[in-house]
Each structure stands twice: as structure tokens, then as C-alpha cells.
Write a structure and sequence with these properties.
Length: about 325
């Protein structure tokens, strides 16, 4: 029988207390028990089964959320860079590189999860095909391959007057990249909620405020769980909104730095509530928490580099004097 660690029981009791307080004081608590699966009173909002079939193959809500995330990612990149004046040829070049990077990202996401599973249970063998996907692996593989291909292919693709033009616009790509990642990741986490993976602590069979009624595939129990997938999706969408504001209104030059630090801190925190299989714990921390520490250190290192090199944290706006002088020269 599945047993839960002591600190998960503490989480359960805390949520139950919240349930009593909100149930007595507020009517809108019922909003948290909406059911999108079979309209049951229990509040099951996951959609683990195929919602329709295409050419004999089931189409899952998880896959749809991933697809919506990728389309949103591409849309954000196109609209944001177009607004900032990035040439169409550079946009097309980046789309080509991004397709390859996304493919590599999915490969690494699966490879990382298979590696986590193998470290945790070597006797089961290394099962790449049966492994799930892990966000951290996808981010590392996708980002690394994008940078490699962006500069390597660009060196041969752009010639003559266009030589090194991709380097000129790299900072704009670097600034918008975290926004693309956030929107795609947010929808991906909603997909996790639909499938029941990446879940939080089990809270019991009775309604608990803030909990979601679902079945965790790795546990096999129906009941209310801490919806870490939903909370992370909300965090990602909120961060996307904040960084979009800074990107357009403040010409923030450190969106990547902020993303790395903010998401790293959040991921370390939300992992405390997760009880799904995520790989072997090392010194009391999950693999994703160790990688989150690397994210935070990377973000701080970028800030330090910008400050040492005196790279502006916010892109200076052109003054009227500068613009008029430029017009006179032309």
C-alpha cells in the first residue's frame, strides 16, 4: 500500500483547515470543485482519456495543450520581434532553427526522464521509449541546440552585406526567448494537469479547498491532490505578463536573467509539494531542484556580467537630439 511521508500529511492537514475556513465564510469555494470531465460533484478536472480519435489514434488533451503551447510560442516570437523591428529574413531563419531545437528539446526531455528513472531504479533498466517528459531536460537540450545552430549555421548562411547580421539581432532574440518559453511551458503544465502527472500531495477523498479531484497514474488513488501543475501554470502565465510589460514598456534588457532566477526559486518551492516520481533524491533535493539552483546561479552570473561589462539593464531610449542629429547626417 502507498504510504506518504510525514510532511505530506502536514500539508494535508493544512489544506483541510483552509477548507473549513473558506467553506464557512465564502460561497464561491464551489468554484474550485468544477468538473470538466463528467460534471461530477467531486470536481474532477483531468482529461486523461482521448477526447476524440484521428485516423484511428486517440488525441489527448495533454497533446493538445502541448500543441497550443508551441503555437503560442511561435506567435509570441513573431509578434514581439516584428514589433521591435526584426527583419523578416531573420525571423524566418530563427523559425528554421527553432524547429530543429524543439525536436532536440523533446528528445532531451525524454532522455532526462529515462535517466532519472534509471538512477532511481536501475533494476528496471534504461527505458527511453517508456519514459515521460521532463521540462528541465527539454529546456537544457532545446536552448543549447538553438544557440549552437543559431551561430554555427548563421556563419555560413549570411554572406556579403548580410554577414553576421544574425549576431546583430541576437540580443533581441535573447530578450524575447524567456517569454516564448514561459507561454509554451504554461500550456504544457495545463496538459500535465489534464493527464494527472506532475501532481502534488494526496489530500484525501473529501473535498479540500485548493485541491483538485484526480487520479495520479503513479499512485493509482482517486482523491484530492495539491494541483502543483495548475499553480505552476498560473505562475508561468503571471511571469509572462510581467516580463511582457517590462519588454515593451521599459525596454528591459535582462528578461532572461529575471526568468532564470524567478523560475528557479519557484521550482525549488513547488517541488516541496510534489509527490510524483521525479528521480532519486540527492542530499534531500530532487533533480529539478538541483537544476533550479543552476538556473538561479546562471541568472545572477548574467546580472554580474552585465554590470561588470556596463551593459545597460534597460535599453536607453533615443532622445530627440540624437534622432535629429541622425536625420541631418542622412
Amino acid at each position: 500500500m502507498y504510504t506518504f511521508p510525514k510532511h505530506y500529511i502536514i500539508i494535508h492537514k493544512t489544506f483541510c483547515k483552509c477548507k473549513q475556513i473558506f467553506k464557512e465564510k465564502f460561497i464561491f469555494v464551489d468554484f474550485f470543485s468544477i468538473d470538466l470531465y463528467n460534471n461530477s460533484i467531486k470536481g474532477e478536472i483531468m482529461l486523461p482519456n482521448p477526447i476524440f480519435y484521428l485516423f484511428g489514434n486517440g488525441v489527448y488533451m495533454y497533446g493538445i495543450c502541448i500543441a497550443v503551447g508551441l503555437i503560442s510560442c511561435i506567435g509570441v516570437f513573431y509578434l514581439y520581434t516584428k514589433k521591435k523591428g526584426v527583419p523578416a529574413k531573420i525571423q524566418d531563419y530563427i523559425f528554421f532553427i527553432a524547429i530543429a531545437a524543439i525536436a532536440v528539446g523533446f528528445l532531451f526531455a525524454k532522455l532526462y526522464q529515462a535517466l532519472y528513472d534509471y538512477i532511481e531504479n536501475p533494476e528496471a533498466g534504461f527505458d527511453f521509449y517508456g519514459a515521460g517528459l521532463t521540462v528541465m531536460g527539454g529546456l537544457i537540450g532545446g536552448a543549447g541546440s538553438f544557440l549552437l545552430l543559431y551561430f554555427l549555421i548563421g556563419k555560413f548562411y549570411f554572406k556579403g552585406k548580410e554577414k553576421d547580421i544574425h549576431k546583430k539581432y541576437f540580443n533581441e532574440v535573447f530578450r524575447v526567448a524567456p517569454l516564448c518559453i514561459l507561454i509554451a511551458h504554461g500550456f504544457g503544465r495545463l496538459g500535465c494537469l489534464m493527464s494527472g502527472c506532475c501532481h502534488g500531495a494526496y489530500l484525501g477523498e473529501d473535498f479540500v479547498f485548493g485541491g483538485v479531484y484526480m487520479r495520479a497514474p503513479d499512485v493509482g488513488l482517486w482523491g484530492y491532490y495539491v494541483p502543483t501543475q495548475l499553480y505552476e501554470a498560473l505562475f508561468l502565465f503571471a511571469t509572462f505578463g510581467v516580463l511582457s510589460f517590462l519588454y515593451f514598456k521599459k525596454d528591459c534588457n535582462v528578461t532572461m536573467h529575471i526568468y532564470l532566477i524567478a523560475y528557479g526559486i519557484w521550482r525549488i518551492f513547488i517541488e516541496i509539494f510534489r509527490t510524483d516520481e521525479r528521480g532519486a533524491m540527492v542530499l534531500g533535493l530532487a533533480p529539478s531542484q538541483w537544476q533550479s539552483i543552476i538556473f538561479i546561479v546562471g541568472g545572477i552570473a548574467l546580472f554580474a556580467f552585465y554590470i561588470i561589462k556596463k551593459i545597460p539593464l534597460f535599453i536607453p531610449k533615443k532622445t530627440e537630439t540624437t534622432e535629429s542629429t541622425t536625420n541631418e547626417v542622412e
